[in-house]
């Protein structure tokens, strides 16, 4: 059997059924297949894949950049916020300070005004008193003079109607009175 | 496989004979008068379906290859037609496949720049081999497009041309010096080393690329046919208690189908990887 198989196989090989001897159609067909696939990958599939990979890498980089940007913005916003907060605090402090100053000033002004008013009222009152005293003095003087002259006229029986004389006498009397008062006041 | 392949280079006929013999020994039940039809090397030389005898002959193998090419184009056309930034399931799968070649083979071995230059070539080699290997386990196709010498040989020639082109373009002096006169060797040794390097680099490389792929696929196919033919023989033709043996052979057939899928992916990876390695060696400054 072995011999038969061997010879059969050898015969078969002689009819070019050796697997290592290529037929022209085999080579041509294979080459056509190869070229089709090569052109397909080279011109169509791989460039598309490459494009996609590039886009994907770009997108990833873009996203990272975007995230960085967002981070930076957030930080800037935080900084700004903090700064504003600090500004607001100073502002508030300043306002409080000025309010206090204003209050103090208002109080002082009010006090001053009140004091002025009081002084004015006092002065007015004193002036009025002085005026009243003057008028009282004047009326008193004239009445006292009249009374004194009448009294003196009655005493001496002589009319002291001469006004000039009468006035001079009264004035001298009053002056003496005042002088005695003054010396009494001075002694005291 | 490698040793067998090389032996076969010198004596193809005997090799085929031995192969046939080995297969026949594996199947003692095989008799000429019985109903069992074991696989034979004839499977890889089917009759022409169209344009017989012309350079554009179409037979079962060619048809299977056309199906594989169409499937490949369809998958990658659909996968890259409307690519989204955030991929869907199918696009993810396609991208994963392309990434395997781009990252694990091209960029890792050749670096970014050269990797990009040779990426279309490496991608083509990987997926062409992969799809044509997988037809071996797909029902109704049942034979690998790479199990006939055409495809492995064409791709090996392409790889050969690619690494020579890469080396000569980079620096012819460096390329031939590194290939033929490896540094760090005392000069008298060149008398032995240089012929060995010449043969291994410029003759053996394309041959091993071709035969490794083709023989893997041939043997895988023969094994699967053997198991399923035996199952059919035990169950249908012998029947009775023999069917139990059929269950065993069917189980083996299923296991080897899974194994063939692994081999299909592995051989595609190996072919593309070796192409990249050869290019890398050719453009390297110093070994």
UniProtKB/TrEMBL annotation, chain A:
It is a single-pass membrane protein. Keywords: ATP synthesis, Cell membrane, CF(0), Coiled coil, Hydrogen ion transport, Ion transport, Membrane, Transmembrane, Transmembrane helix, Transport. GO terms for molecular function: proton-transporting ATP synthase activity, rotational mechanism; proton-transporting ATPase activity, rotational mechanism. GO terms for cellular component: plasma membrane; proton-transporting ATP synthase complex. The chain crosses the membrane at residues 27-46. Residues 57-98 form a coiled coil. It holds the Pfam family ATP-synt_B. It is found in: Cell membrane. F-type ATPases have 2 components, F(1) - the catalytic core - and F(0) - the membrane proton channel. F(1) has five subunits: alpha(3), beta(3), gamma(1), delta(1), epsilon(1). F(0) has three main subunits: a(1), b(2) and c(10-14). The alpha and beta chains form an alternating ring which encloses part of the gamma chain. F(1) is attached to F(0) by a central stalk formed by the gamma and epsilon chains, while a peripheral stalk is formed by the delta and b chains. HAMAP family: ATP_synth_b_bprime. Component of the F(0) channel, it forms part of the peripheral stalk, linking F(1) to F(0). F(1)F(0) ATP synthase produces ATP from ADP in the presence of a proton or sodium gradient. F-type ATPases consist of two structural domains, F(1) containing the extramembraneous catalytic core and F(0) containing the membrane proton channel, linked together by a central stalk and a peripheral stalk. During catalysis, ATP synthesis in the catalytic domain of F(1) is coupled via a rotary mechanism of the central stalk subunits to proton translocation. Belongs to the ATPase B chain family. NCBIfam families: ATP_synt_b, PRK05759.1-3. This is ATP synthase subunit b. It comes from Agromyces ramosus. The lineage of its organism: Bacteria, Bacillati, Actinomycetota, Actinomycetes, Micrococcales. The gene is atpF.
TrEMBL record, chain B:
Keywords: ATP synthesis, Cell membrane, CF(0), Hydrogen ion transport, Ion transport, Membrane, Transmembrane, Transmembrane helix, Transport. Pfam families: ATP-synt_A. CDD domains: ATP-synt_Fo_a_6. GO terms for molecular function: proton-transporting ATP synthase activity, rotational mechanism. It comes from the Bacteria. Gene3D superfamilies: ATP synthase, F0 complex, subunit A. InterPro entries: ATP_synth_F0_asu, ATP_synth_F0_asu_bact/mt, F0_ATP_A_sf. The chain crosses the membrane at residues 58-79, 118-141, 147-168, 189-207, 213-234. Belongs to the ATPase A chain family. Key component of the proton channel; it plays a direct role in the translocation of protons across the membrane. HAMAP family: ATP_synth_a_bact. This is ATP synthase subunit a. It comes from Agromyces ramosus. The gene is atpB.
């Amino acid at each position: 059997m072995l011999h038969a198989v061997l010879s059969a196989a050898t015969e078969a090989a002689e009819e070019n059924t050796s697997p290592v001897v290529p037929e022209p159609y085999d080579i041509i067909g294979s080459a056509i297949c190869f070229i089709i696939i090569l052109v397909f990958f080279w011109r169509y599939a791989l460039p598309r894949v490459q494009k996609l990979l590039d886009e994907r890498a770009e997108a990833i980089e873009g996203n990272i950049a975007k995230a960085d940007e967002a981070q930076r913005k957030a930080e800037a916003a935080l900084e700004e916020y903090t700064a504003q907060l600090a500004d607001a605090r100073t502002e508030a402090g300043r306002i409080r300070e000025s309010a206090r100053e204003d209050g103090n000033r208002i109080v002082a002004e009010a006090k001053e005004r009140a004091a002025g008013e009081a002084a004015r009222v006092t002065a007015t009152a004193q002036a009025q008193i002085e005026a009243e005293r003057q008028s009282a003095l004047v009326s008193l003087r004239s009445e006292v003079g009249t009374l004194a002259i009448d009294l003196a006229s009655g005493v001496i029986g002589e009319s002291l109607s001469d006004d000039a004389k009468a006035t001079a006498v009264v004035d001298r009397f009053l002056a003496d009175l005042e002088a005695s008062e003054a010396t009494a006041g001075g002694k005291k | 496989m490698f040793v067998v392949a090389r032996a076969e280079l010198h004596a193809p006929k005997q090799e085929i004979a031995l192969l046939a013999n080995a297969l026949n020994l594996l199947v003692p039940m095989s008799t000429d008068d019985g109903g069992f039809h074991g696989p034979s090397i004839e499977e890889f030389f089917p009759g022409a379906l169209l344009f017989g005898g012309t350079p554009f002959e179409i037979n079962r193998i060619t048809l299977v290859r056309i199906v594989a090419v169409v499937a490949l184009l369809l998958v990658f056309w659909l996968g890259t037609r409307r690519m989204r930034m955030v991929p869907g399931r199918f696009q993810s799968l396609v991208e994963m496949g392309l990434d395997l070649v781009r990252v694990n083979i091209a960029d890792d071995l050749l670096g970014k720049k050269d990797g990009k230059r040779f990426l279309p070539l490496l991608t083509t080699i990987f997926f062409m081999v992969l799809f044509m290997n997988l037809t071996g386990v797909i029902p109704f196709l049942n034979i690998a497009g790479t199990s006939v010498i055409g495809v492995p040989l064409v791709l090996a020639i392409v790889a050969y041309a690619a690494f020579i082109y890469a080396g000569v373009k980079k620096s012819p002096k460096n390329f031939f010096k590194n290939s033929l006169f490896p540094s760090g060797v005392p000069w008298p040794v060149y008398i032995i080393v240089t012929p060995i390097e010449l043969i291994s680099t410029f003759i053996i490389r394309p041959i091993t690329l071709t035969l490794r792929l083709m023989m893997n696929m041939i043997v895988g196919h023969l094994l699967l046919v053997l198991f399923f033919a035996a199952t059919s023989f035990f169950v249908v033709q012998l029947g009775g208690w023999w069917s139990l043996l059929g269950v065993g052979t069917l189980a083996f057939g299923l296991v080897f189908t899974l194994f063939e899928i692994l081999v299909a992916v592995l051989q595609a990876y190996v072919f593309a990887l070796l192409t990249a390695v050869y290019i890398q060696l050719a453009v390297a400054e110093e070994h």
